[in-house]
Amino acid sequence: MLEKLFRLTEYKTSVKTEIIAGVTTFMTMAYILFLNPNILSSTGMDKNAVFFATAISAGFVTIAMGLVANFPIALAPGMGLNALFATVALTGVGMPWRVALGAVFISGIIFIILTITKIRQILVIAVPNSLKRAITVGIGLFITIIGLKLAEIMVVTTSLIPPTLESITKSGGSALLKSFEWNIGMGSFHNPGMVLCLIGLAITSLLMARHVKGSLLIGIVLSTLIGIPLGVTIIPEHFAFFSLPDFRNLAVGELDILGALHMGIWTVVFTFTFVELFDTFGTLVGTANRAGLIDKEGNSPLIGKAMLVDAFGVSFGALMGTSTITAYVESAAGISEGGRTGLTAVTTGILFLLAILIAPLATMIPGAATAPALIIVGVLMASSVLDIDFSDFTEGFPAFITFVLMPFTYSIANGIAGGIVFYTLLKVGTGQAKKVHWMMYLLFAIVVSRFIFLSNNA
Questions:
Q1: How far is CA 258 from CA 102, 169, 212, in A?
Q2: Which end of the chain has less Cβ packing within 10 Å, N or C?
Q3: What's the Cα-to-Cα distance from 99 to each of 43, 239, 276, 315, 360, rounded to whole Å?
Q4: Considering the domain boundaries, does residue 24 fall inside one?
Q5: Of 328, 314, 281, whose CA–CA distance to 122 is shortest?
Q6: What span, in angstroms and rounded, lies between the C-alpha atoms of 185 and 91?
Q7: Residue 152: strand, helix, or coil
Q8: pLDDT tens digits, one per residue of 63-109
């Protein structure tokens, strides 16, 4: 049955490999179960309600990704997108969180329309291979930064200047970016979390070098255990493997769609839509490329179905009571363990649903224990830089801009936008306009218009 459903032989994989890959992906994503409630609680939402929404949404949408698209990609409320949501609905400053959920739901409907009309799928054909490879490299660097931050090897401190709702709507979202001041530095070796990450990195990289199957998963488990005496892995006093959180204040169906429409927040909806559009595209293409699911022409027949699942997931997540659901770059960890089919996603999705029952165990895994896996996955994905033709400046420079902007601006969308602009500009400027797909010209106009619009309304 599993063979017929997931075509394991065709993709040269096995049930054991897929399950290990799914568990690995879940282990690297488990942090979202407790991090998302912490972020969204600033809007006045109940933490336990957000925990439930996170687990349910990630579980069902990821399972759907596996069954419908046969893609080894997991989905959950996106980091960055949840911060954007929290800023929009910040308690006492922005719109009510129910209205913000309504805005997320509307953006999901827009995605469904764009996917059904196959506009999103055209992106896969339109974007040149050099940019696709650069997206993979950029996501690898992006994942590495996530790992470094989780382990506090990279320490980022921010000071928040809460924007007003008026400034958010008038600026199309740029006020959100300007509301933060960032300072980046190196962590301290007196920090046990950083020490644990370095130990885990040494163990995991050695296992990888010796080609041990399940290296990333083994590394996460060993790091979690080592973290106990270091005081990083915290075991609660009354620890129980199975327990149910308090779900008395669930936000299921609490979104306010009419409120979102009446408040005239289309610029906020546009911001959600634009960022999610490129984030999802980049993640799907980057991870699919890493899994070998994209052919020599840079196409994949599976991405269309994957995009449709993702589109429905956005609105479903809003209905459940959480911010935008999106494809996760951490899926690359499972892919690096050999995950090639939807069985990987189904395994991850089931674990998210089970996390409702084993919440204490799932949330006990410290970020420092999963950080080594993310850093190593970053190395594996960055190897795609070897497939970029830097001898052709019209190919190499846009690719460079793409993978540099992603980590340095902490945005997959910014990297893709920069690559699109310079690729189109250089090709046209060197008399190679016919080599540029018509969709690239449209994307060029949208990207330039967006940034001009934001700049003029800042």
A1: 8, 17, 54
A2: N
A3: 11, 37, 19, 13, 31
A4: yes
A5: 281
A6: 30
A7: coil
A8: 999 999 898 999 998 766 776 677 676 655 567 888 888 888 888 88
Does a structural domain hold residue 324? yes
Q: Which domain holds residue 8?
A: 2-163+176-235+250-456
User: What confidence tier does 243 reach under pLDDT thresholds 50, 70, 90?
Assistant: low
Q: What are phi and psi of 213, to 5 degrees?
A: -65, 135
Q: Measuring CA to CA, how many Å separate 233 from each of 127, 366, 368, 379, 429?
A: 43, 6, 9, 26, 56
Contacts of 431 (CB under 8 A, 6+ apart): none
What's the farthest any 2 CA atoms get from each other in the chain? 70
C-alpha torsion angle, residues 204, 210, 212, 214 (rounded to 10)? 30
> Which residue in 445, 433, 438, 447 sits closest to 122, CA to CA?
438
Question: Which tokens hold the place of 302?
Answer: 């599976």
Given a cut of 70, whether residue 246 has pLDDT beyond it is: no
Split into its structural domains, the chain has a count of 1
The closest of 414, 317, 412 to 108, measured between CA atoms, is 317
Structure tokens at 214: 């399940």
Question: What is the C-alpha to C-alpha distance for residues 334 and 243, in angstroms, rounded to an integer?
Answer: 27
At 288-333, the pLDDT tens digits run 777 777 665 556 667 778 888 988 999 999 999 888 898 887 788 8
381 and 290 Cβ atoms separated by less than 8 Å: yes
Residue 243 resides in a domain = no
Q: What is the pTM of this model?
A: 0.69
Is 245 among the domain residues? no
Query: Using an 8 Å Cβ cutoff, are 139 and 381 in contact?
Result: yes
